[in-house]
Structure prediction request, 710 residues.
Amino acid sequence: MTETSPPASSGQTRAPNIRDVAREAGVSYQTVSRVINGSPSIRDATRQKVLEAIDELGYRPNQAARALVTSRSRVIGVLLSDARSYGPSSTLQSIEEAARAKGYFVSTATIGLPDLPSIRSALDHLIRQNVDGLVVIAPQTRVFDVIQQLSPELPLVTLEASGRLDGHTIAIDQEQGARLATRHLIELGHTEIEHLAGPQDWIEAQTRMDGFLAEIRDNDLGTRPPILGDWTADFGYYAGTQMLGRLDFTAVFAANDQMALGLVHAFRDAGLDVPGDVSVVGFDDVPGARHFWPPLTTIRQRYELLGARCVDMLLGEIEGDEQRYHERIGAELVVRGSTAAPPPHDPERAFRRFG
Amino acid sequence: MTETSPPASSGQTRAPNIRDVAREAGVSYQTVSRVINGSPSIRDATRQKVLEAIDELGYRPNQAARALVTSRSRVIGVLLSDARSYGPSSTLQSIEEAARAKGYFVSTATIGLPDLPSIRSALDHLIRQNVDGLVVIAPQTRVFDVIQQLSPELPLVTLEASGRLDGHTIAIDQEQGARLATRHLIELGHTEIEHLAGPQDWIEAQTRMDGFLAEIRDNDLGTRPPILGDWTADFGYYAGTQMLGRLDFTAVFAANDQMALGLVHAFRDAGLDVPGDVSVVGFDDVPGARHFWPPLTTIRQRYELLGARCVDMLLGEIEGDEQRYHERIGAELVVRGSTAAPPPHDPERAFRRFG
DNA sequence: CCACTGGATGTGACCGTACACATCCGGCCG
DNA sequence: CGGCCGGATGTGTACGGTCACATCCAGTGG
Prediction:
């Protein structure tokens, strides 16, 4: 070995660590650590020196080292059943923004198929990462069974109202929203109202249906069994074509905007006028809903609020807040062009042929 | 100290580590490490013992410790400008699925406002987390300047076609898609075609516009300046009302489905028939586009493919693959009800009043 | 004047893993 | 039969922080 010069900073120079900063600032590494973590007992002059050294060296605390010793990763896991739809993706974004503001990272996992192995795999992936807490936007009921089994201690916030769970829960008030939609139709004079519900392993689909049924009952109208759909516009269209066979209703409350869209499409294809012949209400207020034809009456949800509250709650739980509570965010009715008073009574209506 | 009994497993028992597994299996911790990392020189019998011990204790390797010593976090950062729209959120989901399949985690950061501080803050957040690589779905051109400045070495895949960048790039072929849309209109017999473009700090908006202009030029049609929009349906509606003043066109190619939706709304409000009087093409094929009225002719993108390829490419780069290359995924024309042959020539048309 | 107090700072140990290197052992060849 | 080789396994060390505890020092009251 003929090399005599000190190890030249050739190419890949190691990132500065806390001791480099300490040396630069002329203090001990512990003092640097205190500055980083905002300890109160540091003299201003010292803090200043350290901050300058940090800036000088471009120092960034190593998250891995930190996580190793504190056994806190500062990562929040978000379990999604579908990241593409408007609701979940809006919520995810607002969670991410809120978490970042608090210095937390957000890691996502999507459940592909709604079967047990997929749920387990997604959840396992998050747990492997040592997430500090979990937000569940995958409102299939069985998800919670898997969580209970796989990691019952993990701080958890679920975004759907479910009475079955004792964890923290926050939700847009789906039931109230569904009641608003239904009441709107009733107030317009409708008495024969159908409900096109979402898949029943989704808690929010259940809750919207519950709200619908409750409002119907409260107004002493006859109940009719809801149609169970799958959230897609394609299903809405299909359901619409089927419903034309027995035209014994004057309004439909669809559990989301997509299904409402397909429904309207089917009705129009059959020569029915919306809202002249049939009124339709959706749920979500997706962007563009006001430009549908006709502009869709629907229920608007406040996703920004949802994410922020949700993170607050989860961080509270992570930091050992033991109280369990539920919280609800109100939904709002947006009246547009797809609803109107029912057509004048026509006893033949149900027997006429459309299409 | 009067305590003589061994530390009882009272309440919060520490998670098992690699040495616990080693003890259980009767081997050294290094052997356990080898099994975990799939080293070839392990006897099957030994491997079996270790795997059983892992299973027995419910052992999970500690990511933080691993990241600390390898200086690899196994986290991929995704920088999004907007997680709510259909395109980005679909891409995000497919990236997440592909990454998970390879054992990587995905952490997201959304850029709030498109100003420099916001971009910097989002990027900084990801870098703090020691992400191994970065996927950028925020196609504003200025984002790349910030990346260059903040962390020029970070493996990077960008999802938009930009000639300015020497990093790996993958993209749905926006230009080809735009050409498909434009050619479709030309083949139907249209010669007076408008383009409602996206905001020009989005690379994909630029590329779609380039494709449109190129196709117009190739067919020796007269160019007209595109209208610059902001992606929203509201803007589409507004643009539509403006365009009605000078009805000197028979078709519009909108840079996304949302704007197309608003456009159609405005035309219909004014008493124009789509496609009878004006043809409209969108871009994206959002869910529901086939149930718009009229069902929207548009360009479909293959997001699933995009995410998978993107992760492949990024992991290649992370593992030291130096070749820089671009890749394109073809887009596809979906013909529905919003396009038709132009109306018979009518010299008065531009002067008639609609609305 | 000295022990005491409490704020500011420094020292040692440890978190759980992977890497480099050392060791062990059986079989093979000269 | 001994040395050598290579596959299988074990041992020391470093990664970059934080925590518990030790130390130092100035101000204070008895």
Residues 27-31, 34, 41-43, 46, 65, 67-71 of chain A lie near DNA strand C (CB under 10 Å from a C1'). Residues 85 and 286 of chain A are 9 Å apart (CA to CA). Residues 1-11 of chain A have pLDDT under 50 and may be disordered. DSSP finds twelve helices and twelve strands in chain A.
